[in-house]
Fold this sequence. Notes:
The complex is a heterodimer of chains A (260) and B (240). Chain A is built from ten helices and ten strands.
Amino acid sequence: MTQEDLTITDPKMKAHGVNVFYGEKQAIKDVSIDVGTDLVTAFIGPSGCGKSTFLRSLNRMNDTVASARVTGQIELDGEDIYAPSMDVVQLRARVGMVFQKPNPFPKSIYDNVGYGPRIHGLAPSKADLDVIVERALVRAGLWDEVKDRLGESGTALSGGQQQRLCIARAIAVDPEVILMDEPCSALDPIATAKIEELIHELRGKYAIVIVTHNMQQAARVSQRTAFFHLGTLVEYGKTTDIFTNPRQERTKDYITGRYG
Amino acid sequence: MALTNDHTVKAFDEDLNRLRGLISEMGGRAEQALLQAMTALSKGDLDLAAQVVRDDKKIDALEAEVEQLTVQTIALRAPMADDLREMIAALKIVSVVERIGDYAKNIAKRVALMDQTRSIEAIPVLMSMSNIVVELVHDALDSFAARDAELAVRVTVRDKNVDDFYNSIFRTLVTFMMENPKYISESAHLLFVAKNLERMGDHATNIAEMVYYVVTGERMEERERGETPEESAAAEKEQG
């Protein structure tokens, strides 16, 4: 793996020598990577390469899989997230997640966004919660479309709106990192463009890591790209370098469509 | 390497192969135009000169075809990495080859204007110079076809010989004009021919630099280049 062009002076998350096993099967092999605070980092690679598995290990989402086992070191602001003292619920508030299919709660738009802040005790009063909900919906670019119908069910929105609602939900608890696992794969091009624009807007406010199968999307939204193959991190570099002049033959074959 | 490793989408490879074929054909035509223009010049063959002028339209048409195919491929296939670099290089290379064709046409057009001058001693030297230029253009296009960065580097190094030839011919012709004022007009035409050949050498270098970029992803280091008399004069003026 080449690391020459990487200048991440202020990493939000640091992974070192990470292995992930599902039972006997090793899904991630010795991956080390720094995630920049003010950067959008894209994980690309063919299906089954481990990119989603690795993404999920960044907020211990793999804990929910009984057979999954993670070794190695993953730090958030220098703190070991797999340490016994780490509060996983708190961790997932700090490292939020947006999934492939929009999954709003079967509740009102307001409650979808307000639920997290309420259970995390971020909103002492109804007025505080109103402010938090509005700010999250504004940041997620959804406010103007829903401000007059906050009481309607989140599931009644269009797919693209639902996904932005899920992003608003992640933002509402004031996270430091947002993980996105194929956030646009179920959306049409217009809704996709809106999410990409949103990612652009959110950059700098949160460290963002996005898994995508769409290489044009990785090229459009990210500043750093990591290419995974067969559970290993093959190449990690500036997005412009990865897409114009990758160092590794395997990266080149994948991004030019010679894989397979 | 691109030549041995096929894309999953076969139609992409077909587009690339067609693109390479068109560029190769275009380069072949430019080489031929130069050879024929110089032959016409040395023999005073007006028919051959006229043919060079006519054939230049085919080179122009090939350029348009490559441009269209490149734009189409970028739009439809979204090429990345070396494929992307090849598209950009293809666009630049064909515009350079088109220029080379124009210079050949320009030489051919001068044939009719200078039928008394075939005894001027500079002509055999111009023929030797043009042989080197033809080789450079040929090798530059070969390096593109073969993705050969080393050959590309050698082309840029050898361009120095063309520049040396130009400097020498420039002096020869200036001396000749002073001694034979009657032939100033013809000599001036030959000077333009020499200049055209010198520019074609530079264009071969441009192609080689693009090939180097396609193959390695890096820009070729600024080569040591020989100065033409105009450039030396300009440099002296700046200093003085």
